[in-house]
Amino acid sequence: MERGRVTMDRNADAPWSKFDPEVYVDNNYRTPLEVDLLIVRLMRDYFTRCFEGVLPRSARGIDVGAGANLYPALSMLPWCEKLLLLEYAHPNVEYLEKQIAPAGYDIAWDPFWDELRKVPAYAAVEPRGRVGEVVRVERGNLFDLEGGDRRWSLGTMFFVADSMSEAPEEFHRGVRCFMNALGGGAPFAAAFMKESVGYRVGEHDYPAYRVNEETVRLSLEPFTAELEIHDLHHSVRPGHEGMLLALGRRNSAIAAP
């Protein structure tokens, strides 16, 4: 539910039941964009550093608001004994369930794995078999993580908190819910569309909250023991000014609701 002026402004108002994952993949990933390949490389290298010397496949990972995007999950694959794709929109849930079926995921995701497997930890993994073994899909809202169970030792959230609502309180709540689902020291990657005014998928418009590097940094810093933000000056469509990728580790504090 990631990547326009729109009429709705809150998450509950958006037409998620009409989201078209095939159109979304065709528009954004079927022909890999250099910015996405760059993001994949940055995540790959960061997670590799974080897990250096750690037993492979020992983490419990989560991709929050997975949508029709498999590369965040692939980036976590070598490190996870279990990996949850949490997604709210029914069409995206169905899409993701097809991707983890025994037939294997769509060849559209092969170029992203080709970038990942340039590092030995990834090259040692047979991705389609591993996805079928460790990944499961669950329908749920980002806000379902409000309780902060803190059980995940690795996490990603791509174009979610900023791409579901125009309301600032929902953006900040979304970031808080994601971060409070992670255990202390957990590495994470979170991506945001910079200064997005909303986006269209097929025949339907979806809302966004306009963020910049400062907004993202201020929203994440209370939760992080380390944080780096990459301002990627790549536009993939009209209505935004680039992408922001945040990489870091969760601190040990529990943030207030």
From TrEMBL:
TM spans (from-to): none
Keyword terms: Methyltransferase, S-adenosyl-L-methionine, Transferase
Residue stretches in coiled coil: none
PROSITE patterns, alphabetized: SAM_MT_NNMT_PNMT_TEMT
Any GO MF annotation of the entry: methyltransferase activity
GO BP term (any one): methylation
Keyword Methyltransferase in annotation: yes
One Pfam family linked to the record: NNMT_PNMT_TEMT
Protein name per Swiss-Prot or TrEMBL: SCO2525 family SAM-dependent methyltransferase
Organism of provenance: Streptomyces tendae
